[in-house]
Design goal:
Length: about 450
């Protein structure tokens, strides 16, 4: 009965399965049905799991693979072994940090459209900040992946189809927890199959249309994928291109949207942080639209995003399946064990962070006397994962989030709707529930430009 209650909790909200004491434990070892689970919750154990033992622990969990493989096939996010190694070499350069500057004009133009839309709203108008950020980041990622013109044309269809898919997929893979063979087929609900067909159809249309009409001046991820070659010199086949485009959209849309929604919520709860943010934006930008070069000049804006990622990591559970016998911190890890790194716990561990549950962006600033940087290991802060499987879109996502907050908060504030009780809920990603009702407030209402 205890196991059934745990699985029921996990199906509704993954965060509900952790107790208060779990935040400060270094290693948690337990069993669910016929599966051994181990949680690494210290820098040393995280390093062992995701860096030192990468070869043995590179495979994503059966739940993640079986939930996403019908949609993204052998896409980078869930592949492993030789396929993952080869695909990583192809995809990483296309979205590498060195290319972010070329994508930044698309980001800025799209965020500016949202700013003008908000400025046109009446003082005190209510919005759903979660939905607003989801549409903003989806628009950015669509235009970035598919190019400006196609991104605009297909954005709404792609967003709705992906949202549908995420709502429908199962959270628990009972077959794997029971220790049954991996090859046993999983039942796919008709609604899930419908969402998959909808996504594949629109992605195929976009790829075909892009291949016919693309130009060298149209900077896009899809262009990079169409030009990419395997190690033997052959181009990626059409299915692989579609899989990787789906991965990049899925990974780059919801995670940044959730981070921005949490950032708005946290700022609204701290007048001190709000005032310091306004001061930085006024001082650095002096009323103008930021450029890519301004990102490094906005350390406090960046610190707010980093702190939102610490408190509410968009993917709060990072799971692996042991492909062979190994060990962690001297504890044997047998083949088939599920190894978890849980940023939700790790990044609130009081052994690693001072006042771990408080929103304090200063902890990320080198100039702050009470920062956590001196004692922080890179393995204690892993919102983008860590090791060889670290998110290749890290620089893209951080730049997008910083620019979004800087452009929108320059002229506007969001306040939480009175009486709202915001609670974190995690299915695949960590969100502030289904909605985040906030009200728009103009700092100095500028003329529409």
């Amino acid at each position: 009965m205890k196991v059934l209650r745990l699985l029921n909790k996990a199906g509704k909200n993954y965060l509900a399965i952790w107790s208060h004491k779990d935040f400060d434990q270094n290693l948690i070892d337990f069993k669910i049905l016929n599966r051994q689970l181990m949680v690494c919750n210290s820098p040393d154990t995280v390093k062992e799991a995701f860096q030192t033992n990468h070869q043995a622990l590179q495979r994503k969990t059966p739940q993640m693979r079986n939930a996403l493989s019908p949609l993204i096939g052998d896409g980078l996010f869930i592949s492993d072994g030789e396929i993952w190694t080869a695909r990583r070499k192809i995809v990483s350069p296309i979205i590498h940090g060195s290319r972010v500057s070329s994508f930044s004009p698309i980001m800025i133009e799209t965020i500016e459209e949202k700013r003008r839309e908000w400025i046109a709203r009446n003082e005190g108008d209510e919005i759903d900040a979660l939905s607003e950020m989801a549409h903003l980041t989806a628009e950015i990622i669509c235009r970035t992946i598919f190019g400006q013109d196609l991104g605009r044309e297909f954005a709404t269809e792609v967003v709705e189809a992906f949202s549908d898919y995420q709502r429908q997929i199962d959270q628990i893979d009972l077959i794997s927890l029971l220790g049954l063979p991996e090859w046993l087929p999983r039942f796919t609900k008709p609604s899930v199959r419908k969402s998959i067909k909808r996504i594949h159809t629109v992605l195929d249309q976009i790829i075909d249309q892009y291949a016919r009409t693309s130009s060298q001046s149209n900077v896009s991820v899809l262009g990079g994928l169409l030009e990419a070659c395997n190690e033997d010199g052959t181009p990626l086949d059409r299915q692989a291109i579609r899989n990787e485009a789906a991965v990049i959209f899925m990974a780059g849309h919801e995670t940044t949207a959730n981070t921005l929604a949490w950032a708005w919520f946290l700022i609204s709860q701290s007048p001190r942080v709000s005032q310091r943010l306004r001061h930085e934006l006024d001082t650095v930008l002096e009323g103008r639209v930021p450029t890519f070069a301004d990102v490094r000049k906005l350390p406090y804006t960046k610190a707010i995003i980093e702190e939102a990622l610490r408190l509410y990591p968009p993917v709060p559970i990072l799971g692996r399946e042991a492909m062979e016998d190994t060990s962690i911190d001297g504890h044997p890890v047998s083949k088939g064990t599920l190894l978890l790194v849980v940023p939700w716990l790790l990044q609130r561990n009081s052994n690693l962070w001072s006042t771990p549950h408080l929103f304090r962006p200063e902890r990320h600033l080198e100039s702050a006397p009470d920062n956590d940087l001196a004692k922080r290991s890179k393995y204690s802060y892993v919102p983008f994962s860590i090791g060889p499987r670290i998110c290749p879109g890290l620089a893209f996502g951080m730049t997008e989030a910083i620019l979004s907050l800087a452009i929108l908060a320059r002229d506007l504030e969001l306040q939480l709707k009175p009486g709202e009780d915001v609670q974190p809920v995690c299915r695949l990603t960590l969100r502030p529930g289904d909605r985040l009702p906030m009200t728009i407030h103009h700092r100095d209402r500028p003329a529409l430009q």
